[in-house]
Each structure stands twice: as C-alpha cells, then as structure tokens.
Design brief:
Chain A: This is Tetratricopeptide repeat protein. The complex is a heterodimer of chains A (411) and B (395). Chain A has 411 residues and is an all-alpha fold. Chain A is built from 21 helices and no strands. Helix content of chain A is 79%, strand content 0%. Classes of the chains: A mainly alpha (411), B mainly beta (395). At the A-B interface, helix 13 of A face strand 10 of B.
C-alpha cells in the first residue's frame, strides 16, 4: 500500500515538475518573420540560418510560395554580402517555386532582384532582359544609356509616358528622361520635362543644378544645389524618424521575448508569485488604508486649525499683544494640528527656549515677520537675527532668515 | 571535516573571483629598465609572406592624406582628405569606386571618423559621430544606425559588434562620457563598458581627462591605450580586459599633469607614438620628450617577457614631412629586403598586418637605404604614385 502511495506521489511530482507552458512549434510564417527581423538588424548569420529552417519547414509543408519567399530573401542577403553568384542561384531557385497567378507580384520582385544582381555584375544584357520582365523601364533606359544607345533609351521612356500612370510614376519617368537629355546636352527639352515635376520633388533641384552647370552658370547651379540639399535634409530627417520607430520596434521585440521566457515558468513558480503578490498586495492595501486614515485625520485637524479663530487671530495685522492665555490656546491648537512637530524639534534642538518655540510656531503658520515682531514684542531686525541663530542651531550652518523659514515649514 | 569544507569553499570562492587577466600577471614593458635582451627588434620570424598593393592612380582615386583604411579579403578601403567619400580598391590595387560620398541623402555622409569591415557579415562600416552606415562591398548602401553615445572612434570587432573609445579632453564627470565600450549595434546591447580607465584616485573626476587614444587591432579585437595610463586594454567580443602594461616611471605629480592637461608631455620620459601586436609580441614605437626627432622601438615577447630595444636612425621630423604617421620608422625587413615594417593596422587574430607608405616617403627611404632601390615593387613607385599598401601574412 505504502509503495503504491509512493508511486502516486512520485507521479504527482513528475506531473508538477513538467513544464505546463505549451511547446510552440515554429511555423514557416514565424520563421520567415524571425529571419526578416534578423535581416533588418543586419544579423546575417542568424538570418540565413533561420531562412534555412524556414525552407526545411516549407518543404515539409509543400508550401511553394513560402519556399520562393525564403529563397528570395536569402538571395537578398547574399547580394548585400556581395556574394553575387550565390545570390543569383538563390533567386533562380526562388523563381522555380514562384508558380501560378498568386505569385505574380513575387515573380516581379524576383525579376527585379535578378536584374539588379546582373547589373552589379556588369552583365548588362541579362540585367536589361530581367528589368524588362519586371517592368522597370527607367532602369532599362539607364542600361541603354550606359551602352551608348541613347535613342532607344529615350524611346522606351516616351512610350512608357504615353500610357496612363499615376502622377508619382510619371514624375519619375519625366525625371529620368530629363536626366538622359541633360547628359546629351538637350537642355531645353530637359527643362520642359522637368517643368512637369512637382516643385517638392527632391531630385528636381539636382537636375536643375546640372542644367545650370552645363550652361556655365555656377551661381544658379549653386542655388539649385543648395535647394537640393535642403530637400535631401528633409528626407534624411524623415528616414531618421523611421529609424527611431524601428528602434522602438526593437525594444518591443525584446519585451516580447522577455514575456515569452516569463511564460515558460512552471505553474508552481507562478503560483508562488501569485501568492506572494496577493500577500504583498493585501499588506500594502492594509498599510495604505491605515496611512490614508492617519493622513485624513491629520489633514482634517490641520484644515480645522487653518480655519480656526486662534489661527486667524494670530494673523491679524492690527496692533495687539497676546496674553499668556492666548499663547497657550495657540500652542494647544498647534500641537493638535502638528502632533509630532514639537517632539521632533526638541530632539533636533534640545535647548529650545519658549520664545524660540513660539517663533517656530509662527513661522510654521506662515505669519509674516513684521506681524511676528509685533506678537513677540521685538523689532523686525531682532526677528531676523533670531531666525538666523535658529537656523544655525538646527543645521549647524550659517544661513539666511529665509532659509530658516523654509527649513521650519518643511520640517 | 569542517576545516576541509572551509578550505574547499575558500578555494572555490578565490578561483571564482579571479579576473581573466589579473593586472599583476600582465606582461609588462618596463621603459625605465636600461637592460635589454637585444639591441635589435625583430619580426621576420613571424612574417610568412608579403603582398604588395600599389594603389591605382586616376582622377577619382588620387589620394592626398590618408585618414583611415580598412582591408577585407577582396578589397582595400581608403579614407583620404580632398576626396569625396571612401575609395575602394581591389587587392591588386585597381580603383573600383567611391562609396559613402558627401551629402544629406540616404547613404551619404557628413563627417567620417573611422571605417572598418564586418568580416562575418561582409559589410563596410563607416562611422560618423552618432551614426554608423553600412555598405555592401558592391558599394550599395544598406542601413544607417544612429546612436547617442559620444564616442571618438568606433571600429567593428565582430559581427554587428563595435569597439568604441570615448571623447578625448573632456572632464570625466560630464554626463554620458565613457572611456571604453563594446556594443552590439544590431540588438542595441552593451556588451561591456568602462566609464573610467587608469588610477582615478589621483584627481577629482571633474579634473580628469581622457588623453589621446592610441589603438590597433588585437588578438581578440582592439587594443586601446589612452595617453598617461599604464595599461593597454583589449576590447573584445567577451568584454574589456587589460592586455599588457607599460611602465613609464611617472611620478604621481607627472601622472596628475598628464591626466589633467590635454597634450601634456613629461620631460625625460618616453611617450608612445604607436604600437601593434603580433601573435608573439607587443611592439611599441616611442620618442623621448626631450628629443622628438629620434624614435625608439621596443618589443615585448609575450611568452618570455624579454624586451628588445632599437634606436631608429631616421630623423622623425624629416620623415613627418613625407608621411605624418611615420611608417618609415619601423623594423628592419629581412623577409624580402623591402620597406621597414610598421603596420597601420595589425590583425593578429587574422594573422594579417596592413602597412601604408606614401610615395614621397618611399622615395625618401630609398635615399636613406639605397638597397631599397633594388626592390622590384619599390622600383616602380615614383614620387607621383599613389601610396603603397603592404599586407603582411603572419605565421
């Protein structure tokens, strides 16, 4: 029997010790997101490793879109690492997986990426071919310009402009056309095309500066160049703002990771935390309620005192001399409003004279020095001197009457 | 039994408290000791081969005064005055392109302070005050990371990891000021930081300044030394540790002067010009404050602690007109009878050292050492050539 009970206890312990948190199996989507995060942070080694995991997972799930996406992004990392043959190999593999109409936009991104890699490798023919497939007419025109085929470059851009496009796209086409024309010396045509750009376009001023420079007008060129720098600066600020947002996102990610690790704590541990939290909350609430009660009582008596007849009497500015009875009445009311004040002050200044104690009360009550002088039957100067001496007695430092007032009020 | 347990705990505690490189056990280069193992500093036993990279001269790649350089497996990057951005050459010396040009747009820079290469991620890191821009070796701009740390120099020592040295000549009690730090730019984590270096009991914090930084590659990252402090620190992926000590023989008053006055030099004492590390040695180039024309070379054997000393015959003041970093004052090259060896950067971890000599300096050295005129690479260098980069592959 005892043996059986032991077994049951052992089983219970085993169950209790088993982590209760649900084991998350990373999905392809999660892996792709994690890899993209690493890539964004330029952590290329973990990014590549995570993309490899995503590829393995996608192969198991036979998810060709995910496979294509993972290979595309892997290729982009290789491109950033200037490993062009590897980048091209990845993009070709990605292209093989990007089938069907659902992958149309992905295929265009792949063509563009491959064209960029060919352009970086100096293989202009292949780059032109893939830019054509991706529909990047401006890049096609630039390649034709590099190879000296100016008319073909111009024709491509003009044909593209004939088609109905958004205003932004048209602006880029006009700018590219103007750039071509500036480099051939067709400055008037270039100006005409630039006039179709919105005045806020940052590259407009760079092109205008080039035109002015081609005409030998360095002053005008300088003016346009400064305008260009101004707009670039605005762009830079916008980009920096985006980076700040990115930083915030990073901190959010860290917080998320911390939360994830917290959630992996055992249930028992969490229970202890809850119990501790409940006990501390209870104690805290009890203590706080006591403190509030005490504070309410104190503040009530202080409020009573501040509106009492004796308080107002000692604030009267008319000439009058308090009798010992007035003082007694005042000090009793004062002690009720500030119960520990006298004891604490006595501890600080054991040889506190009666006159000094009265002065302290008047300071605490914020009685003006001139009124205090009248009440204590002395001159204003004497009051000032007493406050200086009192400050020295309490703090051991030389100070001003105002410092003494501040000290007593905050005491 | 209780006694045994006590001793066991004591031993464990003492072992646990020991730092990686206790200052007492550090190799020491004693500049006050006039006895040396040899009157010649050697390095040829560590050089396996030498690769010469004469940098191509075009209108775009004309190099004036070099401010910094970095080397990757395939490229040499040069930051020069009077040129826009960083000049990229291949390892044969052919000019490839300019990157990180001046401007306000994405990928453009304002004032570059240093450049380095992230070998693992294969990226060029261009540091400015408060930001680092990353470029691919194909010249593509990838990302700019902003930071608020007031560093003076920043160098990549590992994947996404930067070694940073604080601003010179600023009181150490200034908010945000630090001496040395290792930071991960990707995760924004602080791997290690030292607010102060050296003996901080000499002067109040507000009167203590960071002296001029001297640094070079180290086995684990970067070696950094601030003028007036006797410890050379290593900044690595695992933190900041003392690497070796240099005994200058400063009195307390001299130390106070050096640490509170920017650029102060103590008469009668050595002053460090540059240093570097090889797998076997630490090598230091110094001058005496009283005679800044004559330089002294010291080597410290890491294993035996033996110190070798050599006095250079080159007049530093004359050489300075041809190359302000005084590469020509170096160790005799017995490997191929080429230029004196003094690397701009040493990467002992990668068993590599990179040296940079200007053409006019080479011409000057040819006159001083006529045997250099016979060297096949140096023969082709004329006064109008671009600088020559020499890469030493170490054993």
């Amino acid at each position: 029997m005892i043996h059986k009970i032991r077994l049951v206890i052992f089983a219970c312990l085993l169950v209790a010790c088993t982590p209760t948190g649900r084991e998350d199996i990373a999905t392809t989507g999660t892996l792709l997101r994690q890899a993209a995060f690493y890539k964004e942070q330029l952590q290329y080694l973990p990014a590549l490793e995570t993309y490899r995991q995503a590829i393995r997972q996608a192969e198991k799930e036979k998810d060709s879109t995910a496979l294509s996406l993972a290979y595309l992004e892997t290729g982009k990392i290789y491109r950033n690492q200037s490993l062009k043959p590897k980048a091209l190999q990845s993009e070709k593999t990605a292209l093989a997986y990007a089938e069907g109409t659902a992958c149309d936009s992905l295929r265009i991104a792949l063509y563009r990426e491959m064209a960029d890699i060919y352009a970086l490798s100096g293989q202009t023919d292949s780059a032109f071919h893939y830019y054509q497939k991706a529909g990047c007419r401006i890049r096609q025109a630039q390649i034709l310009q590099q190879t000296g085929k100016q008319k073909e470059a111009e024709a491509i851009l003009k044909t593209e402009l004939e088609q109905t496009r958004s205003q932004e796209e048209n602006a880029e086409l006009y700018l590219a056309l103007a750039d071509l024309q500036i480099s051939w010396g067709q400055l008037k045509e270039a100006e005409k095309n630039l006039s179709r750009l919105p005045p806020s376009h940052p590259h407009l001023y760079a092109a205008l500066s080039r035109i002015a420079q081609s005409r030998g007008d360095s002053l005008q060129a300088d003016f346009y160049h400064k305008s260009y720098l101004h707009y670039q600066d605005a762009l830079r600020k916008e980009m920096e703002q985006n980076q700040v947002t990115q930083l915030l996102r990073t901190s959010e990610q860290k917080e998320w990771e911390a939360r994830l690790s917290d959630s992996q704590k055992t249930q028992q541990g969490q229970m202890y935390v809850w119990i501790a939290l409940l006990v501390s909350c209870g104690t805290g609430a009890w203590g706080y309620s006591r403190y509030r009660l005490k504070r309410t009582a104190d503040s009530l008596s202080e409020t009573d005192f501040l509106s009492s007849e004796i308080y107002l009497r000692f604030h009267r500015k008319e000439e009058w001399k308090p009798t010992p009875k007035d003082w007694e009445e005042l000090l009793q009311a004062f002690n009720r409003a500030y119960p520990e004040f006298r004891e604490r002050l006595k501890r600080k200044i054991p040889k506190l004279s009666e006159q000094e104690w009265r002065m302290c009360c008047l300071i605490k009550m914020e009685v003006p020095p001139s009124t205090a002088a009248m009440l204590l039957c002395c001159t204003n100067q004497a009051i000032s001197m007493r406050r200086v001496r009192l400050y020295q007695k309490t703090t051991g430092e030389k100070g001003t009457p105002e410092q003494c007032d501040a000290f007593i009020r905050d005491f | 039994m209780k006694k045994m347990l006590f001793w066991l705990i004591a031993v464990v505690a003492l072992t646990g408290c020991g730092s990686k490189n206790s200052t007492d056990k550090l190799p020491v280069l004693d500049l006050t000791n006039p006895n040396f193992a040899s009157d010649r500093v050697e390095i040829s036993d560590e050089i396996k081969s030498i690769e010469y990279v004469p940098l191509e001269l075009t209108d775009e790649s004309l190099i004036a005064e070099i401010l910094d350089l970095a080397v990757s497996d395939d490229y040499v990057f040069i930051y020069s005055t009077r040129q826009d951005g960083i000049l990229q050459f291949d390892r044969k010396g052919h000019f490839v392109r300019s990157v990180a040009k001046t401007g306000n747009g994405p990928g453009e820079t304002a004032q570059i302070v240093s450049l380095s290469v992230d070998d693992e991620n294969r990226l060029l890191c261009v540091s400015e005050f408060f930001s680092t821009s990353f470029y691919s070796f194909d010249g593509e701009f990838i990302k700019k990371v902003n930071t608020l740390r007031p560093y003076l120099w920043q160098y990549c020592i590992g994947p996404n990891t930067m070694a940073e040295m604080g601003r010179e000549s600023i009181p150490m009690d200034t908010p945000g000021i630090f001496s040395l730090g290792v930071f991960n730019l990707a995760t924004d984590d602080t791997i290690a930081i030292r607010q102060t270096v050296g003996n901080m009991d000499l002067l109040p914090l507000k009167e203590t300044l960071l002296g001029e930084w001297n640094f070079n590659g180290g086995t684990g990252g970067m070696l950094c030394y601030s003028a007036g402090i006797d410890t050379v620190w290593e900044l690595g992926m695992d933190g900041i540790h003392p690497a070796f000590r240099i005994d200058f023989g400063f009195s307390a008053d001299e130390q106070k002067m050096v640490r509170s006055e920017p650029g102060a030099i103590v008469d009668g004492k050595y002053w460090i010009s540059r240093f570097f590390e090889t797998p076997r040695r630490y090598i230091v180039k110094c001058f005496e404050a009283d005679n800044q024309s004559r330089f002294h070379l010291f080597s410290l054997d890491k294993e035996t602690g033996a110190v070798c000393h050599e006095k250079s015959s080159i007049d530093a003041m004359e050489l300075f007109k041809h190359n302000r970093i005084l590469t020509g004052i170096g160790i005799h090259n017995e490997t191929d009878g080429g230029l004196p060896v003094w690397p701009y950067y040493s990467y002992p971890g990668k068993k590599l050292m990179v040296q940079l000599n200007t053409a006019v300096e080479i011409e000057y050295l040819k006159e001083k050492y006529p045997e250099l005129k016979q060297h096949p690479v140096l023969q082709k260098i004329t006064e109008d050539s671009n600088p020559l980069v020499t890469i030493y592959h170490l054993r």
